[in-house]
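Quick board copy: two proteins, each given as sequence then C-alpha cells.
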Amino acid sequence: MPNDELTAQILAIFFAATEPVTLEQLCQVFPDLDAARLTDHVSQVMQDFHSLQNAVEIRSVAGGYRMTTRPEHHEIVRCYLKTRPSAKLSLAALETLSVIAYKQPITLPEIMEIRGIKGTSTIRTLLEKKLIQTKGRKKVVGRPILYGTTREFLVHFGLNDLSELPTLTELEEILGQDVVRSSATQGTQGTEGTERT
C-alpha cells in the first residue's frame, strides 16, 4: 500500500468513523481534491488495504464507506460480542423488522396478519432504535401508518442498499428450515397474543 499522507488520512478517518463516511464528507475534508479523484483514490486504498490482510475490509455501506470485519470472522466476533452487555433485539423485534424490511412500506395490521401476533410494542422498540420510520399513511379506510426501514437499518446490518438483503430462499438455506418463508408470507396460525420486546 502506498505510504502517502492522503492514504493514511483516509484510513484514519475510516477507522475513527462511527457511521459510514460519504464521498460528500470526504470532499469537505479534502476541499482541494475533486470528487472523481477522491473516488479513484478511495478505490485504490480499498484494493491495497484488502490485499495486505484478511481480517478487516472497507465496504460500501448505506451510501458511504465503512471499515468492517470480514464475513468469515463474523461468528467469532459474534462470540466476543456476547461477552459484553448490549441492548439486543428480541426475537419478536427481529421478526417484525424482517417483515418490514421485505414488505415495506407496510402497515401494522399487515405486519400482524403476516406474523399472526399482536406486536405494537415491537414497533415502538424499532422506532426508538431508529431501525424503522414512518413512511406516510396508506390510502385506505382508517389511513393506517406505513412503516419502512431507515438508513440506520442499513448501517446496523452492513448493507449498502436493500437489494443486498438475502432472498427468502437464501435465508431458508442459512436457517435450514422453512420458518422464514412461512413467517414472511402467511403468518403463524393460532399464536395470537402479546409478546416481549
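And the next:
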Amino acid sequence: MHDNQLLKIAQLVNSKGIQFVASILKDKLPEELNREEFFVVKLSQGDKLFRIGE
C-alpha cells in the first residue's frame, strides 16, 4: 500500500470516528502517521500477540 493510500485511510477513519487495524512495518509507515497517538498495540520479536513459543 502506498503512503498516499494510507494517508487517505487515516483521514477517513478520523472523520468517521472508526478504527482501522493493519499490520505495517514501522519503516514502511509514512512519517505523518508515525505518532504514538495512532498506536493501540505495538508488537515486536520480544512482545508477540499470542506469546506462542515462549
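Board note added afterward: DSSP finds one helix and no strands in the chain.
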